[in-house]
Design goal:
Layout: E1 22-27, H1 29-37, H2 39-50, E2 57-61, E3 63-64, E4 67-68, H3 71-82, E5 87-92, H4 111-127, E6 130-133, H5 144-150, H6 155-178, E7 183-188, H7 204-208, E8 211-215, H8 232-243, E9 248-253, H9 262-274, E10 279-282, H10 285-289, H11 297-311, E11 318-319, E12 321-324, H12 335-340, E13 346-349, E14 358-361, H13 371-380, E15 384-388, H14 389-395, E16 406-419, E17 428-443, E18 450-457, E19 460-470, E20 473-478, H15 492-502, E21 509-511, E22 516-521, E23 525-530, E24 536-541, E25 548-551, E26 562-564, E27 569-574, E28 579-584
Parallel strand pairs: 1-2, 1-10, 2-5, 5-6, 6-7, 7-8, 8-9, 9-10, 12-13, 12-14, 14-15, 15-20
Antiparallel strand pairs: 3-4, 11-22, 16-17, 16-18, 18-19, 19-20, 21-24, 22-23, 23-28, 24-27, 25-26, 25-28
């Protein structure tokens, strides 16, 4: 056993290229080979990144898609960056080169693929004291060997079992036998909704790996196949942090599918850092230093990090409505992030927060067989619990112990809405949506359950928000459209009802169209960021004790960024892509 050749360089926690955080870049194997073979040529290209962004660490890869770097090449590249004062860690991407099945994982039913992992980890642990897995450490092979080995297990059961065994024997055991001090990191992708089906497990993995890392690559939420609202970059950092408190080392994003709007690239970085990431990793070296399609991204990223570094230490700990999602949850994919894009701050967790005063439960939370008893305990202590229509559907008859509310088979196609100002005794107004919206119809008993917002049609209306009392607390149901993106098309008056029932114990809310995000911290600091294509007036509602809001971006700049709070409210004109980082006083 030996300590890695990286001995003596700074540890992960000590590296800080900026005042308040570190920025790293991931270096794929072809860049490693190119740097080792043509240091002078690589140096000229690398300057485009290093002249714009303060790089504190490089993750140096030795395997990807059946391409390998040698130990000598790793040592050469590590020396190159050490001479620049940049720390190095190892990296590996465990994918195959069979792109007929999309991004193809290695097949761990094959000895030659298992050997790739074991031998690559062995080499990395000899050279580095830290190894990170790119987020291809998933399983999607269905070859004859995998089918045979799976037997009667489901694909999820088989992959979780196989992945745990590979991690224990070929990764952790191998790395630590070579270098006991090696810090082995699994980097999770954004798409947590499919984790268990592809071998990822936020419970088991975080017990096996030394540290974790978070994917925050939201890219283009509409024109890409992974369905990722922008709020997801923030949500994932907080959600994965709950799985491994203190061991979530950073967030990782890339420029792909962001060329349509440079702000969409920067938004990934902002959301990553607003969640209080210790480090941001830029993927990947080649794209940022050599691909002309991304020539503008490094200068823009440099400006972003300088801005954030100016107020990062003035942000407290992130807060929000407790959003319970078990690690094994399925259903209403990414609904939390659509809710977040409606200006509702969430603090997600893989564990149920028994002490929370406001709790949000989407369909995935109903996968917890003990969820009803947990809800009853919270309600007996006066909590407000907000559930989605999908949660009601998943619980079925079990939900009727709380009220005679159920998810019917009927739908409604609506564009006119109403709200209430008297707790549901009557509804009022006629507010038009941007388009027709398809919603499920909820069955409920009037005068037992109250409709706080609804949709109109001919001689009929359909609930959007329901609420009733239970024990010392209250339960609310929010109806999620069949297309969850249509949450954005609910009128402001309806969104405000949703914000109100979800924010009763948070006390800070906004009134605005959807796609304006609100992030809150425990030191009376908030961030408002608009993803709209146009400027929009945003009303901010705060506790009466606050009299002024001051922008930290403009701190000390006199006339700019100061807002007077009158009767607990103030307004801002939210400009797209600009961060309103506000200190309330």
């Amino acid at each position: 056993m030996q300590k890695g050749l990286n001995a003596g360089l700074k540890s992960h926690e000590q590296v800080s290229s900026y005042k308040n955080f570190n920025v790293a870049v991931y270096m794929p194997v072809m860049d490693v080979i190119n740097c080792a073979e043509d240091r002078e040529g690589f140096d000229k290209k690398f300057a485009h990144l290093s002249d714009n962004v303060k790089i504190g660490r490089v993750y140096v890869e030795n395997y990807r898609s059946q391409q390998f770097a040698t130990k000598e090449q790793l040592i050469s590249v590590k020396k190159y960056f050490e001479e620049k004062g940049i720390a190095c860690s190892g990296g590996i991407t465990t994918n195959d080169d069979d792109f007929r099945r999309g991004f193809a994982s290695l097949c761990y039913s094959r000895k030659d693929h298992r050997d790739i992992v074991k031998n690559s980890i062995h080499m990395l642990a000899e050279v580095f004291d830290e190894i990170i897995f790119d987020d291809f450490y998933f399983l999607n092979c269905r070859c004859a060997d995998c089918i045979k080995e799976k037997g009667d297990m489901s694909w999820s059961e088989f992959r979780l079992k196989q992945k745990a065994e590979v991690t224990k024997e070929l990764v952790i055991k191998e790395a630590h036998s070579v270098n006991p001090e090696c810090n082995v990191i699994v980097k999770y992708p954004l798409w947590y909704e499919s984790f268990n089906e592809t071998g990822y497990d936020l419970k088991t993995d975080t017990e096996l790996f030394d540290s974790i890392y978070t994917g925050t690559e939201t890219r283009n939420p509409q024109y890409q196949q992974q369905h990722m609202p922008k709020y997801m970059g923030y949500f994932n950092m907080r959600y994965y942090e709950s799985a491994a408190p203190g061991r979530n080392l950073g967030g990782w994003f890339d420029p792909y599918e962001c060329n349509y709007n440079l702000t969409s690239y920067l938004e990934q970085g902002y959301m990553t850092m607003f969640a209080k990431a210790k480090e941001a990793t830029l993927f990947c070296m080649f794209s940022l230093i050599a691909d002309p399609a991304y020539r503008l991204f490094a200068p823009a990223a440099g400006e972003m990090f300088e801005e954030i570094d100016g107020y990062f230490d003035k942000l407290g700990n992130p807060t929000g409505i407790a959003a319970y999602r078990p690690s094994y949850a399925r259903g209403e994919d990414n609904v939390h992030n659509y809710i977040g894009m409606c200006g509702i701050p969430l603090e997600p967790s893989i564990d149920y927060d028994e002490n929370a005063k406001t709790i949000f439960l989407a369909e995935g939370a109903a996968c917890d067989w003990d969820i009803a008893s947990k809800m009853k305990k919270s309600l007996s202590e006066g909590a407000d619990i907000i559930v989605t229509s999908g949660f009601v559907r998943r619980m079925g008859e079990d939900f009727e112990q709380f009220a005679n509310v159920s998810y019917s088979t009927r739908k409604a196609y609506v564009d006119r809405f109403a709200n209430t100002t008297d707790h549901g005794l009557s509804i009022n107004g006629s507010y038009m949506a941007n388009k027709k919206i398809l919603i499920p119809q909820m069955d409920y008993c009037i005068n037992d359950v109250w409709e706080l917002a609804g949709a109109y049609d001919t001689d009929m209306n359909y609930p959007i928000v329901l609420r009733w009392c239970y024990d010392k607390g209250r339960i609310s149901v929010i109806v999620i459209p069949d297309n969850m993106g249509d949450l954005y098309n609910y009128p402001v008056e309806v969104l405000d009802v949703i914000r109100d029932v979800m924010g009763l114990n948070e006390n800070i809310m906004i009134s605005a169209p959807a796609r304006v995000s609100l992030i809150t911290y425990d030191n009376d600091t908030i961030i408002i960021r608009s993803d709209l294509e146009y400027s929009e007036i945003v009303k901010v509602i705060v506790p009466a004790k606050f009299k002024k809001a001051s922008e930290l971006v403009h701190e000390g700049n006199g006339e700019f960024g100061n807002y007077e709070i009158i009767n607990g409210e103030f307004t801002i004109k939210a400009t797209p892509g600009y961060n309103y980082v506000l200190k309330l006083s």
